[in-house]
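Pilot study result, target chain (143 residues):
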Amino acid sequence: MNRQQPLDWFEPDELDLCERCGEQAGLRIEEVGTFICFGCGYIRWAGGETVVDALQGRIAGSMAVEHRILALLERHASLAYDQIAAHLDEPPSTVRSALANLRDGGLVEVLTTGETEAHSTHAPMYWRLTDAGRDELTRRGGA
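Predicted structure:
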């Protein structure tokens, strides 16, 4: 496969000036109101704007939290999400999102312990590694 730079995919007259960096390196997709600059990584769409570096940072940050969760569960067997958040000093919403991604990937599973009080059942949820989660932690370089 020929691995060219994205700018090499287009003729100069097919690209627009980027309002952020001023280079003629932007691709405008009128049908969806999107602009992507291959020079500086600026992306604008009808709902907002960002840069590629910010997106990559979010992905890397999310993966780092997921790795830390796997390592923590390896050490503690099972924990509730609020315990995980406290151990990692991460916002609960970040931990819940990371746990959902890990669960969807088959790397963690939910354990519930039911308690009956009157006619209501309160089921605390605890998270633990699956065998696939242990394998992934080893693949990523351990705890």
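One observation from the pilot: The chain has two domains: 7-46, 58-139. A full batch analysis is planned for the follow-on phase.
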